[in-house]
Design goal:
336 residues; alpha+beta; Beta-lactamase; eight-stranded antiparallel beta sheet; two-stranded antiparallel ribbon; 12 strands
Length: 336
């Protein structure tokens, strides 16, 4: 099945580039509301499910044991840009549990944020694992393992009790076995299990409403969402879609990006979850598609972000990033 074009990039009067993909939108009570493209093919959710991976941090009692507040919980769900605040919170999470940056297993990369990278370069410092966009997630997992008396070494490996618990939660919420045949490693070396897009949307519909298979996790997940709404810039960073959407509409949209063109989220008051996958893995297209969904379901969000004007180095308008007719038409027919 060929997926339709969801996002177009124009230059002058012409469409210069385009991105195909698929979308699933699911109601917690009514089931599938909209399927665009192939929503049955298994895709890796990547970082879009960091909030699910953070459930053991809350449910084990580790967050309370180490005095974690909204800042720490939000960072545990983050794909952050490596600002000073991001790294400071990550370091505090580790210190509170008697750990350090050297205990992290996420690896090193420069800050994802251009300003954060420039600030680090100007300071003469070198990037370390705290700058990794997944350092908060890893710090939360380390704290959970420490609190439960589990080994710290190899906490990121699939056979460690920490990752086994995450796997159990994913199997429970998805209703799938999620065996080694669908397991890959994320960029931060953690295991990641592929599942159909429609399943991912269903999981988020359940999570944001605290119903269905997510009911046993309702209290913990509400705490996670509240933290991300309170500290949206810790979840991503300045100017990024996740932070913008949750910052503008706390309580109404929970949203998280994942690498390779994935986006997931939900609308608690509407009882709706969604999942997006862009075929070529382009973030500008996944963010554009996700924001188009936000605009459709939250009318006040119209033109919040996704129609991006492209400019030349002299500041002249040269084109736009816009929703393609197939996406616009499908969303206009969505009944909620």
């Amino acid at each position: 099945m060929s997926n339709p074009v969801l996002i177009e990039a124009t230059r002058g009067p012409l469409v210069e580039s385009f991105h195909t993909g698929s979308v699933a939108i699911v109601s917690a009570t009514s089931g599938l509301l909209l399927a665009i493209g192939d929503t049955s093919h298994a895709v890796y959710p990547r970082s879009a499910i960091k909030s699910l991976q953070a459930l053991p941090l809350i449910e084990s009692g580790a967050a309370d044991a180490y005095g974690y507040q909204d800042t720490e919980i939000a960072l545990a769900c983050a794909s952050h840009t490596g600002t000073k605040r991001h790294t400071t919170v990550a370091e505090h999470m580790l210190t509170a549990a008697g750990l350090s940056e050297h205990d992290l297993g996420c690896g090193i990369h420069p800050p994802l944020g251009a300003k954060a990278a420039k600030d680090l370069w100007r300071s003469g410092g070198d990037a370390n694992q705290l700058h990794n966009n997944c350092s908060g997630k890893h710090a939360g997992m380390l704290a959970t393992a420490r609190h439960l008396g589990q080994p710290i070494e190899g906490y990121w490996q699939a056979d460690h009790p920490m990752q086994k618990r995450v796997h159990e939660i994913l199997c429970e919420l998805s209703g799938l076995e999620l065996g080694s045949n669908v397991m890959g490693l994320d960029g931060c070396s953690l295991p990641n299990w592929a599942m159909p897009l429609e399943t991912m949307a269903t999981i988020f519909a359940s999570l944001v409403t605290g119903t269905g298979k997510a009911a046993p996790h309702a209290e913990a997940y509400q705490r996670i969402m509240n933290a991300c709404w309170k500290e949206p810039e810790l979840v991503a960073g300045p100017g990024r879609a996740d932070s913008i959407a949750m910052g503008h509409f706390p309580g109404r949209i929970f949203i998280k990006t994942g690498a390779e063109g994935v986006y997931c989220g939900g609308f608690p008051k509407l009882g709706i979850g969604f999942a997006v996958k862009i075929d070529d893995g382009t973030t500008r297209a996944s963010a554009g598609t996700a924001m188009a969904i936000v605009e459709r379901l939250i009318p006040e969000a119209r033109d919040l972000m996704h129609r991006t004007i492209q400019k030349s180095w002299r500041g002249l308008k040269i084109g736009t990033i816009r929703t393609a007719p197939a996406l616009t038409s499908a969303l206009s027919q969505l009944k909620v």
